[in-house]
Design a protein that fits this description.
Elements lengths: L1 E6 L15 E6 L7 E4 L7 H10 L7 E4 L9 H11 L4 E5 L6 H10 L5 H13 L10 E8 L3 H11 L7 H11 L3 E5 H5 L28 H11 L7 E4 L5 E3 L15 E3 L4
Parallel strand pairs: 1-2, 1-4, 2-3, 5-7
Antiparallel strand pairs: 4-6, 5-6, 8-9, 8-10
């Protein structure tokens, strides 16, 4: 099997030691260490989009696993054995997001964290509606891992949808899964990660660099979410936020994601800032 990643702008480093049983390939500008082979990637005119090019457009015909570069250090022999079992199914396999976000909640987090502007998401939502996307039946993917057996039609559609929206790839992945009608398996994020690492509330899995970029000013997403609700027909009852003890705001069904020790704040429909 091939395990690969994409790293641009020296976002993180590659581990020098990796478990046996796979070929390790990186696209981008990381230093070539240990078992790694590093190849140039495709310049998409933006560092984040460039890092997504080979992630989405998987270049391999044989069995492959994309893994986020910052998570490579957690892979072990257990992961290799689990991967063999998954790839033997000959299906696309990915993880369900730990927050199990609705479409409204996913959009709200993008706006709140400055990843994508509200205006962009409104236009993107209009496009998805025009091509028949079912917003209610949306699957919430988490794209840290992608197990593939040559899913080129899905990859192509995902890239097309990705380039029509913001730099985050989860909304476009969700749309590509549904619109391509690809046959795929999935597992809930925490259940999968805990087979070889620790994704509990205070687990080491979260001790990595992730999502630390902005493309717009973070703002209260409520007005935009209301517009997106109107476009999609999704009830605002599908929009939930949680304020946790450190003052941050999370979006989604966090009752299934946060440990009991974190569950101390109000859980409410809509956002009140």
């Amino acid at each position: 099997m091939i395990i690969y990643t994409c790293i641009t702008n020296k976002y993180c480093s590659l581990p020098e030691v990796m478990p046996d049983g796979a070929e390790y390939i990186c696209f981008g500008d990381a230093d070539e260490v240990g078992p790694w082979k590093v190849y140039p990637t495709v310049d998409c005119g933006d560092l984040v989009r460039t890092s997504r090019y080979h992630k989405i457009n998987c270049p391999f015909d044989e069995d492959s696993i994309f893994v986020d570069g910052s998570k490579m250090k957690f892979l072990d022999n257990n992961f290799i054995e689990i991967s063999k079992q998954i790839l033997s199914r000959n299906k696309l396999f990915l993880l369900q997001h730990p927050h199990k976000n609705t479409y409204l909640e996913e959009c709200a987090e993008y706006i709140y964290r400055g990843w994508v502007s509200g205006e962009e998401l409104i236009e993107y939502t209009k496009h998805l509606k025009s091509v028949g996307f079912n917003f209610i039946n949306r699957f919430a993917p988490e794209c840290t891992f992608l197990f593939r057996n040559n899913n080129k039609e899905f990859n192509s559609l995902w890239w097309d949808l990705y380039m029509k929206g913001g730099v985050r790839d989860q909304l476009s992945c969700s749309a590509a899964l549904q619109l391509s009608d690809v046959d795929f398996d999935y597992e809930y994020h925490r259940d999968f990660i805990n087979k070889f690492s620790d994704a509990s509330g205070e687990g080491i899995w979260w001790n990595t660099r992730q999502g630390d970029y902005r493309y717009s000013n973070p703002i209260n997403p409520q007005p935009y979410v209301e517009q997106i609700s109107s476009i999609t027909g999704l009830s605002m009852m599908r929009y939930k936020t949680l304020v946790v003890p450190n003052g941050d705001i999370f979006f989604g069904d966090l009752k299934v994601e946060l440990s009991d020790g974190w569950w101390r704040s109000s859980y409410r429909g809509g956002m009140r800032c």
